[in-house]
Amino acid sequence: MANPLFAQEELTLQEAITFALKNKADAKKSALDIENAEYQIDEVRAGALPQLSATASLNYNPILQKSPIDVGAFSGGPSQIEMVAFGQKWGTNATASVSQQIFNQALFTGLKAAKTTREFYMINNTLTEELLIEKVANSYYEVFQTQQQLKTLQSNLDNTKKTRGVIEGLVKAGLGKKIDLDRTTVAVNNLESQKQQLVNALEIQENALKFAIGMDIRTDIELPKETFNVNLNSTLETNDVNNRTEILALNTQTELLKLNKKSMMAAYYPSLSISGNLGNLSNGNIFPTFGNSGYIWSNFSSVGLNLTIPIFTGGATRSKIRQADIEIRKAAVDIEDTKLGLNLANENAKAQIKNSLLVINSNEENVGLAEDVLENTRNNYRNGLATLTELLEAETAYADAQNNYTTSLLNYKVAEIQLIKANGNLKSLVNE
């Protein structure tokens, strides 16, 4: 039975993109970042909830510390200094503590930053998917172009072999020249070499495509024939770059930098919290067990209101705030520069689309002309009206015209992807 993992699969562009979004490491890691953002929010939120803790200790004092005591002072007699041990051999301490933040500006700012981080990861996930879609589409069309070139080369090779067969028959009949047979043999050998180079290049490109989408390298794939359909109704209008995912990501990143600055400024604010303790302390000269006589147990508790007011930090807080402000200003520069780059890419994509359509039409007509020239040259060669050189040149010109046509189609599809990206509609390739 055939292993379905390595079965031949017809892979459309939509299927390739869908497969990549589910299996490629970049897409998986981006989704995990979104999940991790929820845990970051929970971590920050935990700081605003009551904090409970409990501690317990058991101490044994083999040698009790002694202190000098004037015994005479207690009895009213002469001064008499003696060393007296204080404390007990055994001691236990069990304490439960609770604290609750009432006002902490840094904590509140951190909670807002955590929620904004989640938004950033969601936008970054969209950006990661768009970059992955663009990469997969370009790799997909490169594979198709090489496949088309290989088909063109195979057709040219078949035709040249047919020509060689005809010449070989003429040579055997004494009606042809041996040099013509040798020249066609050289042409066939050259085409065979070019074919092998294209086969190797195609294998490498297919492996690159499978890696780009996260597919097992050993899986055989086949692209459908209609991959290079040209949409003559493509709109050349592009959306405002402010709605591009790249700008949204930078805007969110700027918001995070502003929250970071607020977090630095929170060091100027006082903080207020409430705390409480409840515990038990015991001492004795024997190992503590419940119910032992001679073992002293005592309870204690406390409730406190804690206020911290920053007064002077040597200018450290001010320096941190100024550094944070520099980062915000740098982010603004990045946004403007990115907008310029996106506008440039948009204009280039529209210009490339227009140029590609003109080149496609020209190359399509050229393929038809080259085919007519090849057919006429073949007839003339059979009738002795054309030389072998003219026939081989006509075959080469026809193959070049087909390759030029395929290349112009690839250039169009690449420009089309850039135009779709400029409109922020790359995900539409998944739903086609």
Automatic annotation (TrEMBL):
What are the annotated GO cellular component locations? Answer: cell outer membrane; efflux pump complex
Coiled-coil regions listed in the entry? 143-208
Matches recorded under InterPro entries: OMP_efflux, TolC-like
Q: Where in the cell is it found?
A: Cell outer membrane
Recorded hits in Pfam families, A to Z, give: OEP
- Provide a Gene Ontology MF annotation, just one: efflux transmembrane transporter activity
Instruction: Alphabetically list the UniProt keywords.
Output: Cell outer membrane, Coiled coil, Membrane, Transmembrane, Transmembrane beta strand, Transport
Name where it mostly resides.
Answer: membrane
Domain of life where this protein originates? Bacteria
Is Cell membrane one of the keywords? no
Q: Give the family this protein belongs to, as stated in its UniProt record.
A: Belongs to the outer membrane factor (OMF) (TC 1.B.17) family.
Designated name of the protein: Transporter
**Organism of this sequence:** Sphingobacterium hungaricum
